Amino acid sequence: MELKVIDNSGKESGNVTFDEALVATKTSPALLHEVVVAYQAGLRSGTHSVKTRAMVSGGGLKPWKQKGTGNARAGSTRSPLWRKGGIIFGPVNRDYSQDLPKQKKQIAFKMALRGLLQDNRIQVVDPINLSEVKTKNVATVYSKWKAPTNSFLLVEKIDPAFDRASRNISHVQVTDVASFNTYDCLRARRVFITKAGLEKLVARVQGKTEKSNVN
Questions:
Q1: Among 18, 37, 6, which residue's Cα sits nearest to residue 186?
Q2: Mean pLDDT value across residues 158-172
Q3: Which residues contact 152 (CB under 8 A, 6 or more apart)?
Q4: Using CA atoms, how far apart are residues 154 and 70, in angstroms rounded to an integer?
Q5: Dihedral in degrees, nearest 10, Cα atoms 189, 192, 197, 200
Q6: What is the 3-state secondary structure (H, E, C) of the chain?
């Protein structure tokens, strides 16, 4: 499959070849859903917590005697029935993460990547070369690329200075290929990837650590 390469001005500067056989996997919506749910569950902190009657301070003294007052029986002012009392069945600290087999994640990533190619949502670009790394200059390049909201720029390795300049541009997220995942593939309206990033992406799909040749 031939993919066009565009430069910083948005003009075509060449072509690269991507082997579609690397992502020739039948799409399974159920598997994609399972992997996305597991990913989103892992993002939850799970630090929500409330105090039970045993944790609330005070309440050691019986409010009134057991009989003879006309009031209902009460043993503590920290009962869940009382104001400032404990909470019944409230949320507690928990881990929401879900364990999935590595093979499932790999297959789902190939499915999502195949969807990017089929929908023509991936664009190979030349590395961004700026005389001065400023947010305004980076935004100008993005506008030349006609990058829509919820776009990604995939690079081989994130440059700290470029990352700082891109941080305030909300509609394009810069990330390295190693961090790109199935959920990002599905929600991205457009993915811009450098040639070096594409080589690393091919190596990742092949399960290799070294770079693969991309013509």
A1: 37
A2: 89
A3: 172, 173, 174, 175, 180, 184, 188, 190, 191, 192
A4: 73
A5: 30
A6: CEEEEECCCCCEEEEEECCHHHHCCCCCHHHHHHHHHHHHHHHCCCCCCCCCCCCCCCCCCCCCCCCCCCCCCCCCCCCCCCCCCCCCCCCCCCCCCCCCCHHHHHHHHHHHHHHHHHCCCEEEECCCCCCCCCHHHHHHHHHHHCCCCCEEEEECCCCHHHHHHHCCCCCEEEEEHHHCCHHHHHHCCEEEEEHHHHHHHHHHHCCCCCCCCCC
Q: Which residues contact 102 (CB under 8 A, 6 or more apart)?
A: none
pTM of the predicted protein model: 0.81
Q: Give 37-71 pLDDT, tens digit per residue.
A: 999 999 999 999 999 999 999 888 899 999 999 99
Q: What is the pLDDT of residues 90-125, one digit of tens each?
A: 999 999 999 999 999 999 999 999 999 999 999 999
Q: What is the dihedral of CA 23, 25, 26, 29, to 10 degrees?
A: -70
